[in-house]
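Comment thread on ticket #2218

A.B. wrote:
> Attaching the input chain for the structure job we discussed in standup.
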Amino acid sequence: MSALMPTYAPADLAFVKGEGVYLYTADERRFLDFCAGIAVNCMGHAHPHLVEALKSQAEKLWHVSNLYVIPGQVELAERLAAASFADRVFFSNSGAEALEGAIKIARKYQKDNGHPERYRVIGCDSAFHGRTLATIAAAGQEKLLEGFGPVVDGFDHVAFGNLNEMRAAVTDETAAILVEPIQGEGGLRAADAAYLQGLRTMCDEFGILLMFDEVQCGMGRTGKLFAHEWADIIPDVVATAKGIGGGFPLGAILTTEAAAVLHVGNHGTTYGGNPLAMAVGGAVLDEILKDGFLENVVALGVKLHAGLSGLIAKYPSVFAETRGLGLMQGIKLNESIVNRDFKAELEGEGLLVAPAGDNVLRLLPPLIITEANIAEAMEKFEAVAARHASS
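C.D. wrote:
> Ran it. Output below, let me know if you need it in another format.
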């Protein structure tokens, strides 16, 4: 028996190297990676610019702690702020840590503004915000909470996309609203612009913070640096991670000046924002901010949506609908087919995807894919779908 704690049920695959949009096993089997480490490897595998940034920094300095100035933090924070709504940035190691920090910000913001009684955060059903005690409470899903009671207090939940329910849930104790512009684990459900705009108006009306979880949908995945930009609104707080490090552990909290309430002694991290992370994060941002890069993600997203829609039209007994935006898309299977079983069959064809809630398969390819890669993925989907349609 392995000494490894059995917290996962991985596929019987082990990869030893990656190149671009492909992963390889020890016996040289090649897999088209439309999972990208669950939306992490935004620049694919062994991207030359990211590799060089990591190697160059590794030869200089890995870690010093936040007891000292880290110039890379200052530079990357300035670049992220210049490219987004944000005025301030805090670097963490992961999405869950970024969300924990966001929750702390919501409470401290209200306390600093004379409302310590406002501590509750309203979230949405089917959300996913991480695996810490606070973030599983913020999501509110029973499958995440089972065995970890008592549940951390301070969180309420309403239906995703329903402004009336959200408004009804606001009380004198509400500090903030926390929403994923696109629910990833919850089944690739994208909020429309009117919903996000309505949340902004509501938060302004009640004096509460609007916080977005863009851990999965941020950093260029939808064709904007952040998904909320499609709604043309300014949030108060955004938590992001995954793609921001391109595979290196990195997360961030971005805030407006008004929401930048964390000061010396309020919050901290040992590893967060260390020189290695900042070097890689900077290299990722170099690529995302290149002229035409995000426009290409939009165009590829249209191609991917067309491919998935074609599958639905051809195999209506297999697929029900497509969801998502940009290169964060999903396809829902009919009830007679289990998404995890279909995922395993795709692996047999050499294609990697990720499961999601509501019997959906997530397609989260590297942002560097080509139209040819999309065509290859659709061929592999069709090979599996044809078997199900004929059975």
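A.B. wrote:
> Thanks. Noting for the ticket: The first helix runs from residue 36 to 39.
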